[in-house]
Specification:
The structure is a single chain. The chain is of the alpha+beta class. The protein has three helices and two strands; from the N terminus they run H-H-H-E-E. It has helices at residues 2-15, 20-27, 40-50; strands at 61-65, 70-74. A two-stranded antiparallel ribbon has the order 1-2. The longest helix has 14 residues, at 2-15. The radius of gyration is 14 Å and the shape is globular. The termini are far apart. The model has no long low-confidence stretch (mean pLDDT 89).
């Protein structure tokens, strides 16, 4: 399945030494090519990684955790809404 393949690639990138957020941003980059006001360092990150792999286009809202850190990212097409809620203890 697409979800299983995504999970396996994410695990491979993470076990290869990249942080979990770094791995996710490699796989699901924001729409950076025509974003003129993007920070140059962030643009360079996406440009560098675009030479390594194609983006994993959705539609998708991907949430992830390593047991300590929690994150979420929307695919660059933005076809799925992303909702969140902050708990009383700040999560």
């Amino acid at each position: 399945s697409d979800s299983a393949s995504f999970d396996e690639v994410l695990e491979l990138l993470h076990l290869g030494g990249r942080s979990l957020p770094h791995s996710v941003l490699m796989m699901v980059p924001e729409a950076w090519e025509n974003h003129d006001s993007m920070d140059p360092a962030r643009r360079a990150f996406y440009q560098y990684h675009s030479a390594m792999m194609e983006p994993w286009d959705g539609p998708a809202c991907v949430t992830f955790t390593d047991g300590v850190q929690v994150g979420a990212v929307l695919d660059r097409n933005g076809l799925r809404p992303g909702r969140y809620w902050v708990t009383d203890d700040g999560l």
